[in-house]
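Quick question: what would this complex look like in 3D?
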Amino acid sequence: MTDPLVSANRLSVSYRIPKTLPWEEQQYFEVLKEVNFEILPGQRLGIVGESGSGKTTLGRAMLRLVKLSSGQLLFDGENISTLKQSALRPMRQRMQMIFQDPQSSLNPRRRIANIVTQPLIAFGKLPDRSALRETASTLLERVGLNPDLIDRFPHELSGGQRQRVGIARAIALEPKLLVADEIVSGLDVSSQAQIILLLESLSRDMDLTLVFISHDLSVVRKLCDSVIVLHQGRIAERNSTDGLFRFARHPYTRELIRAIPLPEIDDNWLDQNNDTQSKGGLAMQIKNATVLVTGANRGIGRAYIDELVKRGAKKVYATARTPSEIKTSHANVETHPLDITDRDAVYQLASKLSDVDLIINNAGVNMMSALVASDGLDAARAEMEVNYLGTLSMCQAFAPVLKENGGGAILNMLSILSRVNLPLMGSLCASKAAGLSLVQGVRAELAAQNTAVVAVMPGAVDTDMSKDFPPPKMAPADVVSAALDGLEEGLEEIYPGEMASGLNQGLSADPKAVEKELAGYLPG
Amino acid sequence: MSLLEVQDLRVTLRQHSTSTRLLRDVSLSMEYGKVLGLVGESGAGKSMVAKAILDLLPKKAVIDKGEIKFNQNSLLRLSVAERRKLLGKDIALIPQDPMVSLNPVRTIGTHLSEGLTHHLGITKAEARKQSIALLDEVLIRDPERVIDAFSHELSGGMRQRVLIAMAFSCSPKLIIADEPTTALDVTVQKRVLSLIRMMQRKQNTSLLFITHDLGVVAKICDQVAIMYEGRVLENTTAKQLFHSPGHDYTRALIDAMPRFDQPDKPILPVSRKLKEQLQAETREVDQATYND
């Protein structure tokens, strides 16, 4: 494996907030919060985010143009996080920057020839001043400018031309790393297209590593091979460009993508309110995912296996207490015995299946037991053992696996009875309610590792477990479909079917009325 | 019947002994309550059209020919005083850069109530009340606080909202928006565009929307005029323009846009050949009209 050119470990940058009174305590504003990333040589990395997200600071921090408040920064294998500016200076030949505003970053009183050769002069690489004009002409040609422009002043050039001068100056020293900060945002489409094509060919021909900072994801998609999405000073998401656009996990990324106006008539686009859309959670794509399903031997679990294969999952681990009951003929389905109440077995499996990125906790039991009307604790204990503790063990064992694999998701099969108690099987409902609380807690704990934690709460489903339920019942395949759709959309609570969504609406409108209605179904 | 009618407008910049044509017989027409997009690269003359309507042309720019009719009346024949009465009241502007368009030593309230007291003749107290209502209308949270704030205390998106509130304050018939979202990021841009459209629909204002972003045009405009070197190359409905662009240059602009949903689509800068052809046409036009 190649060593990264830039590698940042828990990098933080804060700025001082100006004091209003001299004796006040100094306050700091943290712009970058413990950011970790690596940039491989030859990579073209896009950094996107809205203004104030810290993207410019991140670009400047990489070049040590701002002071780091903590963390470690390696450039070309060398730790530069605390190097003095004088020690950094020789390294600056290998790292250059193109600035956002070509108007203010070019000295208005110097001719173009002088501007583009300035870095060479500064590093004593142009001992013979007579070669200056010639070198300048070559540099201009490399960025597609007419060499006759060397005697002009910056104000005599157009915006696009000035930006190319900025690029010519940045590549004069043949750097390894080039940071471009919003360099096309002020240009019209034609000049923008020229600059993108130029950067593309330069990075290829000169073996440049390019960091391209922008808020325009369309441009990033064209130019970059991977993307970091910054949100409030943290990395919200990092992915290959293809991966990010095919499937944006973070709601903020989805908002950014949706906000790009495409040149297509769409009367509804402006009416779609971005505030409500951004409320979604992390999403997860089934295609190419490696999935583990518990309780895969019947009902909903079996339907999951079929649907996952249909949606192009890379691999499905189907588990059950008796794996011989799992009926499948798909080549990419692997069966494993697993009793989720056996904590050691759960951990053993987690160490074996290290490539999983989606866990579907489907296994559950229903002892059909009331609460007060039953005469023991056995049913309640059995239900809690599987539905709550077993699921918890799964989360505990597999959360580190998911983290290793970049986040992933945990989907827990609950029931609308997690929200309201049906006295007929009050003890099951209590365990399902514990399951919902578990989802909320695990979601909070795993948010930092970008893991989606989703609760699926259907109504009555047509399985042998619910054979005593009154109709209407949903087909397991429909429940599974709705659950996976919701996961792909980034929903955190999924209510498949009319019964579940109706009860959910009823619960938010008048929970007491729903409770009263279900109270009619008494045991016996 | 149209609200604004620009007919054969020709503007020339006379400096020293040289003269440069800025607008070459531009004709546009705007319907009541509709949005017209004015699109072109920098230097295409789109802002000049706006300046001619707003009486903000540079001192050395002269209108050689043409007519601007607003509500059937010629704007060019009005006296300075008469025209000033229209500006800010019936015709308003949303400027490009929210950072420099507000006076840093005046409060937001002062900016907002200026037009109200001047054009509508209401008292300061009444104007303040209306200003707070306006801020509320442009979805600024806590308008009671913002009204006494200075521009540096607000974010870019908030300032743009204040400028929108100012433009709509006297219920104008026509609003000229000069690249109102170019300085903003995509998410803020979308919110500001939604707001402009909401206000425009509510007051049934006509909107002249100047931009170089065809993506934005597709989302907000009913009609589009494509400009190059002070000429209108194509003037058509937005639907028609994106369905089948009539001019090669329009197509070239669309082809130059990168699209996140079509990663394999090549992006092509406007070709030199097309530009040379357009420039040759411009020279022809200039020669043909040299003696007018």
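Answer marked as accepted. Residues 244 and 251 of chain B are 8 Å apart (CA to CA).
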